[in-house]
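Project standup — Tuesday

K.O.: blocked on the structure for the chain from last sprint. Re-posting the sequence here as requested.
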Amino acid sequence: MEKPTLQGEMIVLRPIRADDADAVWESVSDPDGRRLTGTTAVFTRPEIDAWCEAISSAEGRIDLAVTVNGSDEYLGEIVLNDIDDVVGSANLRLAMRPGYRGRGYGTEAIQLMLGLAFDGLGLHRVELDVLSINARAKSLYENLGFRIEGRKRDAYRDGEGWCDGILMGLLEDEFRASQIP
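H.V.: unblocked you, prediction finished:
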């Protein structure tokens, strides 16, 4: 599948490339980002280099770099994975580099990716997990129309403790109802 480039008002989403490896390495090495996304895997730099080189050709998923109009710098990534054409569903994931959180880039990236999911791919449902300790992300998803569907108790590590995973979903008709005509 050819990975798309999506143009927004502030941002451009483009396929992740090998030359994004330095910025991706910064993201996966950020303690706050790892905590808020529940990332426990430890990556090596060669693994990140190989992932950036190969991800654009991976099947069943669309991994796009978030860039600002006028710049090609990788600010974060948005991913639509576990794409199931039969069921019409996929999982959504967003991760921004430390210096680019809270600027509205993630909100616009999600809106563009949802447009692709529902209008481009014809999906019926997009779901995600958000950690209970990440109130900012949960609020963002709710503002975009995602609804809480369940809770996975103590599903993620939070330092020496645990936190819940909140399951959220957005259906095609809910997405369409939220769009401005």
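K.O.: great, moving the ticket to review. The helical segments are 21-28, 31-37, 45-54, 105-120, 135-143, 172-178. The chain is about 30% helix and 35% strand.
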